[in-house]
Amino acid sequence: MMHRLLQFTLDLFGPEPPPDAPDFKPNRPSALVGNRQSAIEPVASLAPSGVAHEPRKALAPATFEHPRANREAQLSGAIVAYELRRSKRRTIGFAVGPDGLVVSAPKWVALRDVDAALHERSAWVVKKLGQAREHQHRLESNRIEWKNGATVPFLGDRVVIVLDPRHAFSEAGAVLHT
Predict the structure, then answer these.
(1) Is the CB of residue 51 less than 8 Å from the CB of residue 70?
(2) 71: which strand partners?
């Protein structure tokens, strides 16, 4: 009895044994399989179990988040975090900009009515948020980094910027060499 207790204590506080490696058989075709389904089943059973979680990440719903978001809703399969502003207006208004969705609503309108209006216009909101995101990506890709060696489109051609280190840059102006 004492030996078992000592062994249990040693196992509990001792170094952890290395994890057992899974047994994977080489993926070789079965010889003369008559049924196609029976050939697929052995190969499918060899797949590692961790692979099943990867498609969930790839199929996650689109998310749009406003930097000052104070509400969130699921619209047309997308999660939209938006800013709700209360104001002195008569109707509920939706504005989609580079930051995301801003919903302006009168102070007297209940939140359930704001949510109902948002769900009613959900297809439009998600479409506009997607267009705004694409527009931002286009602007980012067209941004010019003003440094030595950068290229700039000019009259249908590409002009290379060459900075002269001898120039003091004390006054405005430049010389364009083509």
Answers:
(1) no
(2) 82
Say which residues have a Cβ less than 8 Å from residue 130's Cβ, sequence separation at least 6.
Answer: 62
**pLDDT tens, 87-141?**
898 999 999 998 999 999 999 999 999 999 999 999 999 999 999 999 999 988 8
d(CA 59, CA 54): 9
Integer CA distances (angstroms), 121 to 64, 145, 149, in order: 16, 39, 48
Sign of CA dihedral 45, 47, 49, 54: negative
Mean pLDDT of the chain, nearest integer: 77
User: Is residue 71 within 8 Å of 89, Cβ to Cβ?
Assistant: no
pTM of the full structure: 0.54
- The answer to whether residues 86 and 92 touch, using CB atoms and an 8 Å cutoff, is no
Nearest to 128 by CA among 101, 165, 157, 91: 101
What distance in Å separates the CA atoms of residue 78 and residue 65, rounded to the nearest whole number?
Answer: 11
Q: Nearest-5° angle of CA 132, CA 135, CA 138?
A: 155
CB-based contact 71:84 (threshold 8 Å): yes
